[in-house]
Write a structure and sequence with these properties.
The protein is α+β, with helices and mostly antiparallel strands. The protein has helices at residues 2-18, 31-40, 42-49, 155-188, 261-273, 294-298, 302-307, 399-424; strands at 25-30, 56-58, 65-84, 88-102, 108-124, 130-141, 145-146, 195-198, 201-207, 212-213, 217-228, 231-232, 255-260, 279-282, 314-319, 325-329, 332-337, 340-346, 352-371, 374-381, 386-392, 426-427, 434-444, 447-456. It is elongated. The two termini are 25 Å apart.
Length: 458
């Protein structure tokens, strides 16, 4: 409990720091998810209904005789969930209790059918997670079915036994349902857990207002806090909230997740601040086709040949000073990088000397996919890499002469680096052990939609 309180305090301190920014996400859980929850929820519900029944005081023998009563089994053949507009979820379950009464001379076994109806309110918790609470709970019992088909049990006794069991279940079942929901809330609390974005960066999601609940779905407005080296990153202010249009995604999807332009911009800013886009490109010195050396460069720039008459290795230092720009258009996502590239050559004393530097513009096609609970990306270069000379220690440089060489030695290492980085993936809003299954990704003007089934891994 103390740890939970400390976490809540920490979050309350952190959220106002980034509250002005809106890296918005909308998670819409549709009717199809209720059918799935109904199936996977039967087993936990059956366990929750397996309560302890105290001894029954049997008076049939002329005195009070404590008789042991045990619920042998609970089966839930039907569990149905519905959204309640503006409120939460309604649960309707049919359950059969197999009960054994250990009375002499023969034990009595019976099945007691029951219908359970409960309404659960879904609200926003104090630390930005969904919170479910039972607001009403009712039980309707049917007449018990005796299993041994014997007439040895007096009808009056059977009535008393049923009354005893029903009274106990009436007091305990709704409490068991509430306890089950409390366990669910603990699980929903993992929504706010830190999830990796890159080697030194993380993301944490949190709800920003009460959920919007209709008869067809429950929709959660979610923002993200981005962390670099454990510290929250203050993002540019954007006062425009993200609104997910009503009819997007695929019919029958359990979850429809909308990711705004702000989320992409903020995540790329975080990776840029972390230096994740930077890389050094070196050639394989023992390779016969290594082009990163002063001899090859000297054929294009005479001053390089004059300063380095011996064959020396060359290193390309790629640094990204500006924030990458992602553009989302219908069925098309692109990424633009504007890195600087410094070309350095090794001298005879093993020190590296700067030859020249280039400003570059690289346009990339961005393909998005989802694996488990992460959004991943792969890139490919679109058109030619644009070059301009930023500085030179080797005299005049004709960019058209070095263009082909730069394209050859630069593009593949860049793509390998970017695809490895974007392949790590950005965690989508989710709770522990919940995965996205057969997701489809749709790119729209200014936002991305993911339509998916869900799978809970026990």
């Amino acid at each position: 409990m103390a740890q939970v309180c400390r976490l809540a305090l920490l979050l309350m301190l952190l959220l106002p720091v980034v509250g002005a920014s809106v890296p918005g996400t909308v998670v819409r859980l549709n009717k199809a998810v209720l059918s799935y929850v109904s199936e996977v929820g039967k087993a936990p519900l059956q366990r929750a209904l397996q309560v302890t029944v105290p001894h029954f005081l049997d008076r049939s023998g002329g005195g009070l005789q404590p008789t042991r009563v045990q619920i042998l089994d609970v089966q839930v053949p039907r569990l149905h969930l519905n959204f309640i507009d503006g409120f939460g979820i309604r649960l309707l379950a049919a359950a059969n209790f197999t009960v054994k009464v250990f009375r002499a001379p023969e034990p009595l076994e019976l099945i007691l059918p029951m219908v359970l109806l409960a309404d659960a309110r879904v609200a926003q918790g104090s630390i930005g997670t969904p919170v479910v609470s039972i607001s009403s709970c009712f039980q309707l019992f049917s007449k018990a079915i005796v299993l041994d088909d014997s007439d040895s049990t007096p009808p009056a006794l059977l009535v008393l036994v049923q009354q005893h069991i029903k009274a106990v279940l009436h007091n305990k079942l709704c409490l068991s349902i509430s306890n089950l929901v409390q366990g669910l809330n603990v699980h929903l609390g993992t929504l706010i857990g830190l999830k990796p974005v890159g080697p030194e960066s993380q993301i944490r999601y949190f709800m920003i207002n009460a959920p919007n609940i209709t008869k067809n779905y429950i929709s959660l407005d979610i923002n993200a806090v981005l962390f670099l080296l454990g510290k929250p990153v203050v993002l540019p202010v954007n006062a425009t909230p993200f609104v997910l249009p009503e009819h997007v995604g695929t019919n029958g999807a359990m979850a429809t997740v909308g990711l705004s332009q702000d989320l992409f911009d903020s995540t790329l800013l975080l990776l840029q601040k972390a230096g994740a886009f930077n890389l050094d490109i070196t050639g394989q010195l023992k390779s016969d086709d290594n082009l990163l050396n002063t001899s090859v460069l000297g054929q294009l720039i005479p001053e390089v040949a004059r300063q380095f008459p011996e064959h020396m290795p060359v290193v390309l230092k790629v640094r990204l000073g500006g924030t990458p720009v992602v553009t989302l258009r219908t069925n098309n996502a692109t990424l633009q990088l504007q890195p600087s590239l410094e070309v350095l050559a090794a001298a005879s004393n093993s020190a590296f000397h700067s030859l020249f530097s280039l400003n570059m513009t690289v346009n990339l096609s961005l393909q998005l996919s989802v694996s488990k609970a992460k959004l991943q990306g792969t890139t490919s270069v679109m058109g030619d890499v644009q070059l301009t000379v930023a500085s030179s220690n080797v005299g005049s440089i004709e960019t058209d002469k070095v263009q082909a060489l730069i394209d050859t030695v630069f593009e593949k290492p860049l793509l390998d680096h970017l695809n490895a980085l974007l392949g790590i993936g950005v965690a989508l809003p989710n709770v522990v052990n919940l995965h996205y299954v057969t997701p489809e990704v749709f790119v729209h003007e200014g936002y991305v939609v993911i339509s998916s089934r869900l799978f809970y891994q026990r």
